[in-house]
Design brief:
elongated, Rossmann fold, 28% strand, Immunoglobulin-like, single chain, alpha+beta, 10 helices, five-stranded mixed sheet, six-stranded mixed sheet
């Protein structure tokens, strides 16, 4: 029996006891997601706290949150805490449903997808904002309903009508749709209220028709602080499709929700609404601008284990400054040859180094390998290979470092005149031996000696 049930049967003093119990969540569970880009903004920690029954826990204050950043305590002031929309009427949810209307999705999940969105809209509070975007390769991308305020009246009915309209077509331009959704957030028809903002993509991840790119969309979303939650429907479990849905969500500070069945779709949307409506927002000032991995922990009063998440503020530069190896020519055939030494600069983190058709050495210390490895900024590298066994022949070794590569080229010397090669050298040796053994005053009988010498000398 919950404290509220007890208090309905006992005295008013029990209400005070119940409020104390709620303020100290002895069995609370905490979920944490982070928004850490752009680096000019503070780190935003979205924290959902639930009781042992899985219900959101209300009434927390800044003093209830203990935060550490890379092990260093961060003091949370009252001004650093924003209450969830469920507790603060001034906080409103603003979402765009980015809906895949390609044949592969419509044939598998249309009714469940529409029903789940309608349930989401019905659960929202007056003043929340919703827009609906549909896409496929045939009809392109379209905002079929701009942002409107939920009123559980005419506006809500307009949203549901837009949702139910047909949008038949094939192919899937997911990145183009997300880009349009972000642009609608950036320039809405009317200013959006304060509160959580998100794009909710429902798709099977079968991208095959976009002009926009994944990296461009993720960068644009992060520049404007917009998480992209993804709901996987239909046949989303293939490697490339699953990777798209998880990557877009994870790299924009959101979550991926797999929904293989109609029931899962309904549960997924209900989970998203519960999340957005009940997340506490901790705003954490940070001067971190590097590309290293950092760790943020959030502990809630009464909870034994803090929630933890790792993040980076930006991508590391893995493109080294230009480097090159000097070509060598006129070399002996079949000879092991080492390049000049170059220093790798311009990278911010360790990157992969690999070679083909030869070996490399980090530090040029005599230890060479052809297996992939890692190299750091400021380290040196040289290349080694055996020259060609043929005369006037070239051999090339390619070394890849991060996002760049360079080649080491060797060319063997020309074939000696008079035949050259092993046969020519043998004739020369025979000729010299014959010359030393030639009889004094040799005349006509010595002609064979002269012929050999003429060919070899």
């Amino acid at each position: 029996m919950t404290p509220s049930m007890l208090c309905s049967r006992l005295s008013a003093s029990c209400l005070l006891l119940a409020s104390v119990i709620a303020a100290v969540p002895a069995w609370a569970d905490t979920e944490l997601r982070l928004k850490t880009q752009p680096i000019t903004d503070p780190v935003q920690a979205f924290v959902t706290v639930t009781d042992e029954g899985g219900d959101p826990l209300a009434g927390l204050t800044a003093a209830d949150f203990g935060v550490t950043l890379d092990g260093v305590p961060v003091v949370i002031q009252p001004s650093d805490l924003t209450l969830p929309p469920a507790q603060d009427p001034n906080q409103k949810i603003s979402v765009i449903f980015v809906m895949d209307f390609s044949t592969s999705v419509v044939s598998n999940a249309l009714a469940a997808m529409q029903d789940a969105v309608i349930a989401f809209i019905d659960a929202m509070n007056d003043g929340d904002r919703v827009a609906i975007l549909k896409f496929n390769g045939t009809l392109g991308t379209s905002i079929v309903q701009e942002f409107v305020a939920i009123d559980h009246g005419a506006n809500s009915a307009a949203l549901e009508a837009a949702l139910m309209e047909e949008y038949d077509g094939d192919a899937s331009n997911i990145y183009d749709a997300l880009q349009l959704g972000i642009e609608h957030f950036v320039a809405p028809p009317n200013p959006l209220p304060p509160g959580p903002k998100a794009l909710i993509l429902v798709s099977d991840g079968g991208e095959n028709a976009s002009v926009a790119t994944e990296s461009g969309v993720i960068s644009l979303a992060n520049d404007h602080g917009l998480p992209i939650f993804t709901v996987g429907v239909g046949n989303f479990t293939t490697t490339n499709r699953l990777r798209l849905l998880t990557t877009v969500a994870e790299q924009t500070g959101a979550d991926f929700l797999p929904a293989p069945t109609d029931e899962d779709i309904a549960v997924g949307y209900a989970t998203l609404f519960k999340l957005l409506d009940n997340e506490y927002l901790l705003t954490i000032a940070s001067n971190i601008t590097d590309c290293a991995v950092h760790t943020l922990e959030v502990a809630v009063a009464g909870q034994a284990t803090p929630a933890s998440a790792t993040f980076t503020r930006r991508d590391c530069d893995v493109m080294p400054d230009p480097f090159s190896f000097i070509s060598q020519s006129g070399l002996t055939t079949g000879r092991m040859t080492t390049s000049n030494t170059v220093t790798i600069t311009g990278i911010e983190t360790d990157v992969v180094i690999d070679s083909s058709n030869g070996t490399y050495s980090i530090g040029c210390n005599g230890s060479f390998t052809n297996s992939p490895g890692t190299i750091s900024n400021g380290q040196t590298v040289c290349v080694r290979h055996s020259t060609s066994a043929e005369f006037s022949a070239t051999k090339v070794t390619t070394v890849a470092v991060g996002g760049a590569s360079a080649t080491f080229t060797t060319t063997t010397r020309s074939e000696p005149s008079g035949g050259g090669g092993a046969t020519g050298a043998l004739e020369l040796l025979i000729g010299l031996l014959l010359l030393r053994r030639r009889p004094a005053g040799c005349g006509e009988p010595c002609q064979p000696y002269q012929e050999v010498l003429g060919r070899t000398l």
